[in-house]
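BTB domain-containing protein, Mycena metata. Tokens?
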Amino acid sequence: MDIETSTPVANLTHAEGLWFKDCGLIIQAETTLFRVSRDFLAMRSPVFADMLSMPTPVDAEMMEGCPFVRLPDAARDVTYFLKALIYSEFFEPWPTKALFPVVAGVLRMSHKYQVDVLRRRALLHLSSQHPMTLDDWDATGKNSMRAHGEFLLEVILLARQTSALWILPVAFYNASTRLDIEILITGLDGRSLETTDVIACVQGLRYLDTTATSNILDFLTPRAIPGCVLPVACAQKRGAKRSEVEAWRVYEPQEDTNPIAPLDMWEQSDYHGVDVCGVCRSYIESFHRSARQSLWSRLPEIFGLPPWAELEQLKTEALN
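Tokens:
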């Protein structure tokens, strides 16, 4: 139990939907009060069970005749956590959609207070938006949490805090390619990365913007392709398209835009803009797929993380 200086009662508010008058435990987080069942909380969390099993001192703080506990956690996190415990429909298993702040709050609290069922559920939600295969990455689409820039730093912090290292390759890729360098270094909304993670993002970004992007676009290099029926014309068309695509890499900081990241640089529909023979078309499609898969395979290494196979094992152990 965390004992701190009491907050003036006038500033405290009851949490909506989490103040049960017939329950005997009052919890304070920031300026929010929760009144819940002591036995229920102890049954679900071994950490709370240990806290609440301690003999109550004679001079212990009470409120409305109930034991009183202050938590150092954010009131929002405590709200999400308790609602997930009490209301079955509030935080349903994946693939039911869940807002990222809810996932993050439940994961932080369930990890800290050892509520394994909620921890696994939150990790599944987070993992669904941070795939471990290229096919799953492509299927995730633009509407996933990876497109929500305001949460990119928090995902990394959350993965580190809860030892969910398999989240980090995609989380680092997203942060390094979608956030401004200043935000990566100094943080956002009071949240900042550890120095080692900042370095990983910056070094990874240098590789992605140079070597990785060159490798991804190499299928448009106007080289001779065995079996091509129009070698001169096809080479010219590939070269012209390469010049056009290079313009996508332009960085304009004053316009708050970043170059297109290498994994997103070319889509299936873009092939329609390359009018080459069938032999060349098959070649460039195969070459591009291979280059993207090669980059994906190296993604953990680029950011100084264990290989995918090791990360997959960590994920399996955490979710079983």
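Residues 1-8 have pLDDT under 50 and may be disordered.
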